[in-house]
Write a structure and sequence with these properties.
By secondary structure, the chain is mainly α. It is built from five helices and three strands. The protein has a three-stranded antiparallel beta sheet with strand order 1-3-2.
Length: about 120
């Protein structure tokens, strides 16, 4: 076996499978600047999305805003809808609400199917 084949097998065996982590998700709340830096947007856009109700923020005792790490995924979703479908922010909010509702209905349908199989 050649060195290349050995290296390929070692890499394949050591790897647990495909990994799709695009952004390292922090474990604690992020400041506006940290949130903007991690997501690659300007802080003014972050404030705007909070004012529009598309992002959820926590008000700190100092008056500053902070963001849960999960909000990075929400912002990525907003950007995908805005850029991919050329939606304005009002439409983005509506589409996100509808997609969330579809996901809830699909989860409920899966739950009912599993319950029916176990009867």
């Amino acid at each position: 076996m050649s060195d290349d084949q050995t290296a390929h097998r070692r890499t394949s065996a050591d790897s647990p499978g495909p990994q799709f982590a695009l952004v390292r998700v922090p474990q604690s709340y992020l400041s506006v600047e940290g949130f903007a830096r991690r997501s690659g947007v300007h802080p003014e856009l972050v404030y705007r999305l909070v004012r529009l109700g598309l992002l959820e923020a926590r008000a700190e005792p100092t008056g500053d805003l902070s963001f849960a790490p999960e909000q990075l995924r929400t912002l990525a979703r907003i950007q995908r809808l805005r850029c991919g479908l050329a939606l304005n922010y009002a439409a983005v909010g509506l589409v996100m609400d509808l997609l969330d509702r579809v996901a809830e209905l699909e989860a409920a349908a899966r739950h009912r199917r599993r319950a029916a199989l176990h009867r």
